[in-house]
Amino acid sequence: MQLDSIMIETLLANASLYDLCCLRKRIRLVLDDETRIQQIKHSLQIGQSIQYFNSNINNLIGAVVVEKQIKRVLVQHIDDGSSWWTHYYAINLSDTQLVSIVKPKCGILSKGNISIGDIVGFEHKCEKIIGKVTKINPKTVGLITTTNKRWKVYYEHLFEVIDAEQNIIEIPMISKYEN
Prior knowledge:
- The chain folds into 2 domains: 5-90, Roll (SH3 type barrels), CATH 2.30.30; 111-164, Roll (SH3 type barrels), CATH 2.30.30.140.
- It has helices at residues 5-14, 17-31, 34-43, and strands at 49-54, 59-68, 72-77, 83-87, 119-124, 127-136, 140-144, 150-154, 159-160.
- The longest helix has 15 residues, at 17-31.
- It is an alpha+beta fold.
- A hairpin with a 2-residue loop joins strand 5 (119-124) and strand 6.
């Protein structure tokens, strides 16, 4: 089942913080439901290629199942070979496209709508700086520019780069998944 992102955005925008707190608790109960976890666990095979949602980078990652435990699964990333534990509920079994639920308000970017590898910009001393997101923090993002200069920038100073020509930034990244 594909969720209606517009309906979810409307619900979240109009809900009180108390309502959201109660909703978070209910979602946690559903995520921890043993029956659902067992269904996912039994459908996975060691060596199977999967995609899972990594909340640290706000994106889907291609991986291979290495080991299964009761509530978590060990996966190896296809792109860099690193191994990570993730929850069964983060695995995208239905191959649905990642839908960005949180969208920027008035052009302001936030942790919820930026992913590692995105191209963003900011102004520094009346100069526009463009870079690739290398790290997502609670209040800032780490960026690297084409000149390999690293920046730490607050979300409220960022703007989205939509010029296709700007998306050709080739920047070597030590680890796309560093914490």
